[in-house]
Amino acid sequence: MAILDTILPHVGQIRSIAVSPDGNYVAVGSDGQVSIYAVNDAHAEPKSIMLSNQPSQVDSQKVNFAPDGDKVAIATRRINGQIELILHDRLKGEEIWQRKPLDYGQIVSPRPWAS
Asked: Is 110 domain-assigned?
């Protein structure tokens, strides 16, 4: 089955898409959420990860699978410029880690070489 056939029922603007390393899952980022589709089961309901209770506040997002295919990394940018990073466990259906929203240009982690 083609990937396009799997995500065809998706409604809304698609902002990003990623395929798991084994080719069995597709993550589609759109409208304040990420939906994970099983490629080989067109009848399975997608698992949805809500990124915001106000989808219109999410300006852009990127999704990518970890090499093991069990985790999904999500980066969002809100219309106010804040950046949010999330690591989600696809198997458990839960968030593993989240970097709270940062202002655009704010340093994500300390630089040991900076004085």
From this structure: no
